[in-house]
C-alpha cells in the first residue's frame, strides 16, 4: 500500500517523539511491504518562526492532499516564549484550531488506558486502580465554544466579552454515530456527558443522541452531567467504556482522564473527519522544559501512528503489531523517565524507539 | 444578636440534614446568648408539589428580607421523578438558579478539605493524600453560560441551539476581589483558572484578574488553563490555596475537587452577595436514594451553618465552636456510613447531630 503522510513535528519535544514514530512506521513498511511517503510541514511556533503565522494556507492544502497527518506537539512556555506576545489568533495553538476546522476533524478520540505494568504511576488508591480501566473519550472537535462567534467590546462603557456555544443537530448526530460505532466494537456502552439542566445546547445534544441510540439497539446509552462525570472519573473510572461529549467538556474531561491513568506519555489520540482522513497526535503537550534532552516518552506518538494505520488505512494487523511491540517492551521492563519505577530499565527517547521498532 | 434566617430544607435528604444543623445552631444560640428566628421556605421539588413552580416570587421576597438562607438540597432522581417531566425552566434546579440570580449571589465559596481522620476515604494514592490539602474554590455564580441568552431554533431547516457566555469587567472584578480578600486570610495564593487560549471571555477574565492582583501585593497570582487544572487537582491538590474561576469551570472543578477529598458529606459551601447576605448549603446533592433513612451525613450542612455565622454575622467564635465540635466527634471516632472505616463507631444522621450539638 502507498501511504502519503503529512508530518507536523511541531514544537518542544515534538520533533524527538515524531522521529521515533517514523522509525517504527518505517520498520512496519519494510516488514509488511508498504511504501510510506512523508511530507514535513510547519505548524505552531515552528511556523511562526519561519512564516510569522502558526499555519499557512499552503500547509493546509498539502495536509488536505495527504492521506493522514502525523503530529508531534504544538506550543511553548506561555510565560517566557515570544510566541505568546502575539495576538491570540496568531499564537501556536491558533494554528492547531484552524487546522482542525479546515480539515473538518470533528471526531476526537482520546483513549485513557491504565496499563497494568504502569499501575504504580496511577494517582488513584490501589483498590480503585486494581480494577484497571480502558475508556475512550469521544470529543466533538469543531463546534461549540471553540468555534462560535466571539467579541470583546464596550457595552455602556463597560468592557464585555462574549463567546457563543452553538451546536446543530447534524453536528451532534455525526459525532454521536461515531461514538456508537466505536462502542459497538468495544464494550457496547456510551455515556453521553452534557449539562442538560442548564444549557439549551446540552438539551439538544441529549435529544439527538437519544435518536441516534435507536439506530444502535445493541449499544447501551446513559447520560451524565459534566460535573458528575468529573467526579466519577476519579471515583471509579472502570465504569466507563465510551464517553461522548462536546468540545469544551471533552477538553477538560479527557485531560482529567489522562491524568487519572498516571501515564500521559502513553496516550495516543486521533482526530477524524467524515471519511478516512485523520490527524494523529499524542495526548500530552509539547513539554518545552524537557525538549532536546532525549528523555521524552515517544510511546504516545508511536501508538498514535498505530491508530493512524488502523483508522485511516484499515491496516489492523500492522497496528496490532505496533501495540504488541509496545506491550512487549513494557513487559521487558524498559521505561522512559516519566513512567520509571523500581527495578525497571531506564531508557531515553531514541532507545525506546529502537526497542519498539526491533520488536515490531 | 438577633439572627433572622430563611430555611430551605428542600428535597431528598435536605430536611434531615437541615434539622441537625438547626439543632446545632440552637445550641449555639443558647450558649452564646443569641436569638435565632427561622422562617421555612419551599424551593425545588417541594415547591413544585405545592405551588407547581420550583420558586415563587413570595419565597424570593421572604428570602431577601432575611439575614441569611440555610439550605439543604434540591432535586430528585431525574430518571424517575415526575418533576423531570416538566419543561427545563420549571424543574427543581431552575429554582436554585433563579434564587442565586435574584439574590445577587455572585460569589460561591466551595472549600475542599482532606480531613486527616478521613484520609482513608480519599481516592488518591497514599503518598499524594499524605500531603493533605485544604483548598477553596471561588466560583463566579451569576454570570457566564448559566445566565447568558439561549435559544433553540431552526436555521435553514436544521435544529440549532445557542448558549452565550458573557462576562463584563465589573462582574470579573468583584469576584476576583473576593478571591484575593479570602486568599489574604489564608495562604496568600490565588490560582485563576480560564481557557485564555481559546475564549474571549477568558482573556478579559485574565486581564481584569491581573489588574485586581495589583491591589493585593501580598497575594501571589498564577494562571492555569482549565484542562490543566482538571489534571492538577488529581495529581497534586496540595499545590492550591484559592482557585478563582468562572461559573461553568467552577461547577466542574469544584465537584472534581470535592470528590478528590473522598468525603463530600463533609463539604460546606457559601454563596455570597455584595453585602453580608449569603446562602449556605452542603456541596453534595439531594441523594434521593438514601432519603428518609436517617443515614445521610449532616456534617456538610452543619459546617455550612458555621460558614453562615462567620461570613454573614461575623460570629467567628461561634463558627469556631462548631468546627471544633465537628473535629472532636471525628477524633472520637464517630462516623456516618459514607465516611465509615474500620474501628470507628457508626452513627445515624440524628445521632451525629446530637453528638456535635453536645460538644459545641
Ligand atoms: C491547545 C488547545 C487549544 C487544545 C484544546 O483546547 O483543544 C488542547 O488543549 C487540546 O486539548 O488539544
Ligand atoms: C443544580 C445545578 C444547576 C447546580 C449548578 O450547576 O450550578 C449544581 O450542580 C451546583 O453546582 O450547585
Automatic annotation (TrEMBL), chains A, B:
Pathway: Amino-acid biosynthesis; L-leucine biosynthesis; L-leucine from 3-methyl-2-oxobutanoate: step 3/4
Domain Isopropylmalate dehydrogenase-like: 4-356
The keyword NAD appears for this protein: yes
Subcellular location: Cytoplasm
Biological function: Catalyzes the oxidation of 3-carboxy-2-hydroxy-4-methylpentanoate (3-isopropylmalate) to 3-carboxy-4-methyl-2-oxopentanoate. The product decarboxylates to 4-methyl-2 oxopentanoate.
UniProt xrefs under NCBIfam families: leuB (TIGR00169)
Molecular function via GO: 3-isopropylmalate dehydrogenase activity
Name of the featured protein: 3-isopropylmalate dehydrogenase
Binding site for substrate: 100, 110, 139, 227
Site (Important for catalysis) residue list: 146, 195
Predominant localisation class: cytoplasm
Protein's gene: leuB
Sequence positions that bind Mg(2+): 227, 251, 255
Lineage: Bacteria, Bacillati, Bacillota, Clostridia, Lachnospirales
Keyword Manganese attached: yes
Record: residues binding NAD(+): 285-297
E.C. code: 1.1.1.85
Alphabetical list of InterPro entries matching this protein: IsoCit/isopropylmalate_DH_CS, IsoPropMal-DH-like_dom, Isopropylmalate_DH
Species of origin: Laedolimicola ammoniilytica
Catalytic reaction annotation: (2R,3S)-3-isopropylmalate + NAD(+) = 4-methyl-2-oxopentanoate + CO2 + NADH
Amino acid at each position: 500500500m502507498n501511504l502519503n503522510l503529512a508530518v507536523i513535528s511541531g514544537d518542544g519535544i515534538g520533533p524527538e517523539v515524531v522521529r521515533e514514530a517514523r522509525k517504527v512506521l518505517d520498520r512496519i513498511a519494510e516488514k509488511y511491504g508498504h511504501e510510506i511517503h512523508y511530507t514535513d510541514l510547519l505548524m505552531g511556533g515552528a511556523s511562526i518562526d519561519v512564516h510569522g503565522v502558526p499555519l499557512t494556507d499552503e500547509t493546509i492544502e498539502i495536509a488536505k492532499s495527504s492521506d493522514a497527518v502525523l503530529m508531534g506537539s504544538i506550543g511553548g512556555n506561555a510565560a517566557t516564549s515570544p510566541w505568546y506576545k502575539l495576538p491570540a489568533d496568531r499564537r501556536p495553538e491558533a494554528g492547531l484550531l484552524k487546522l482542525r476546522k479546515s480539515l473538518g476533524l470533528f471526531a476526537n478520540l482520546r483513549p485513557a488506558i491504565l496499563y497494568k505494568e504502569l499501575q504504580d504511576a496511577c494517582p488513584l488508591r490501589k483498590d480503585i486502580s486494581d480494577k484497571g480501566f480502558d475508556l475512550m473519550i469521544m470529543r466533538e472537535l469543531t463546534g461549540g465554544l471553540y468555534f462560535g462567534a466571539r467579541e470583546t467590546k464596550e457595552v455602556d462603557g463597560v468592557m464585555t466579552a462574549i463567546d457563543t456555544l452553538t451546536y446543530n443537530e447534524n453536528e451532534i448526530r455525526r459525532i454521536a454515530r461515531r461514538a456508537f460505532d466505536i462502542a459497538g466494537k468495544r464494550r457496547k456502552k456510551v455515556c453521553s456527558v452534557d449539562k442538560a439542566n442548564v444549557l439549551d445546547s446540552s438539551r439538544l445534544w441529549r435529544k439527538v443522541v437519544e435518536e441516534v441510540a435507536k439506530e444502535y439497539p445493541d449499544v447501551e446509552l446513559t447520560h451524565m452531567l459534566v460535573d458528575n462525570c468529573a467526579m466519577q472519573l476519579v471515583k471509579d473510572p472502570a465504569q466507563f467504556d465510551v464517553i461522548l461529549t462536546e468540545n469544551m467538556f471533552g477538553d477538560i474531561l479527557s485531560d482529567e482522564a489522562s491524568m487519572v491513568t498516571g501515564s500521559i506519555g502513553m496516550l495516543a489520540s486521533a482526530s477524524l473527519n467524515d471519511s478516512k482522513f485523520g490527524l494523529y497526535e499524542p495526548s500530552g503537550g509539547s513539554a518545552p522544559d524537557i525538549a532536546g534532552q532525549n528523555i521524552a516518552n515517544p510511546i504516545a506518538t508511536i501508538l498514535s501512528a498505530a491508530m493512524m494505520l488502523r483508522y485511516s488505512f484499515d491496516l489492523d494487523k500492522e497496528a496490532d503489531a505496533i501495540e504488541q511491540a509496545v506491550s512487549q517492551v513494557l513487559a521487558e521492563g524498559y521505561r522512559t523517565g516519566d513512567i520509571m519505577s523500581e527495578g525497571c530499565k531506564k531508557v531515553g527517547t531514541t532507545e525506546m524507539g529502537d526497542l519498539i521498532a526491533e520488536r515490531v
